[in-house]
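[job 0412] stage=complex_fold ligand=adenosine-5'-triphosphate status=START
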Amino acid sequence: MTAIDVSSISKTFTKKLTHKVRALNDVSFSVPHGNVFGFIGPNGAGKSTTIKILMGLLRPDAGSTSFYGKNSHLPEARGRVGYLAENPAYYDYLTPRELLEFVARYYKVPGAESAGKVDEVLRLIELTHAADRPIRSLSKGMVQRIGLGQTLVHDPDLYILDEPMSGLDPLGRALVTDIIQQLKARGKTVFFSTHIIHDVERVCDDVALLLGGSLQFCGAVKSVIDGSFNSYEVVIRRSDELSPSLPDGVAATREGDAWRLSIPRDSLNALLSSLSRENELLSVEPERRTLEQIFLDLIKSHRSAQGRE
Ligand SMILES: Nc1ncnc2c1ncn2[C@@H]1O[C@H](COP(=O)(O)OP(=O)(O)OP(=O)(O)O)[C@@H](O)[C@H]1O
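[job 0412] stage=complex_fold status=DONE, emitting structure tokens
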């Protein structure tokens, strides 16, 4: 079942009457139900514009979006969604408990369940101790956690979170990634935008990269990382000079009675048989790059291609 479908959306903003900004250019992707999906891209790539179109806060110039097969702008489609906006503003004289009770009433959570649900969410976002203090007296990170909390109150199937880790310290980020993992374990779908690619690598099944309003990549995180390596790290035991001598392109460092070699993928087979004849092989591992390194390279090559145009 497809939770989110984005089909060929485009959006151009007009600034100062004449200046046009093409924020999205024919973007399409879909998110299967039960998936944790990371939506990444540099500042101005079009992430928030996509999310606002999904939530019906902006109309696309072309294309369409749906939640579970229904136009995402319809109230019955949006009722299944918990949404965290990029820069949410709350009535700051309310307390976290009052705000969550308000959200529960808005989503018609039955009165008998509401108090228990609000307490559960306060516990989950670790704000029980501050539940009855006005929001204006809370830190930025606590307010960000309330933002996540208000998406959880009506227990929706789908979560659309615009930068849920923004403004959080490492403990706060770990809490958010933990909540996302709990949602996944309960069969929920989570779609979130972020600049923190490391968090995508930790929690996401799939990832999409948006650059300059166009989708550059969309696929499984595991396949990006598994497919990205182009060399192997080989460790051999040998306390004197290596034999046979190494060809160009192979880096070697000595560590005590072992040597650590970095061997290009296409030279591995040939070299491994001669190395193993004269040395004791300790390990052979692909030298994987992180998702961050892979995407930074993609972003840099996109920018240099744009510079050449
Ligand atoms: N209301 C608007 N009027 C004019 N231009 C806009 C408007 N909203 C967004 N833009 C422009 O559209 C482009 C995409 O912006 P968007 O906020 O979607 O990017 P983003 O990927 O979410 O960036 P960030 O990571 O900085 O939040 C940018 O060039 C931005 O200046």
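The chain has two domains: 2-226, 229-286.
[job 0412] exit 0
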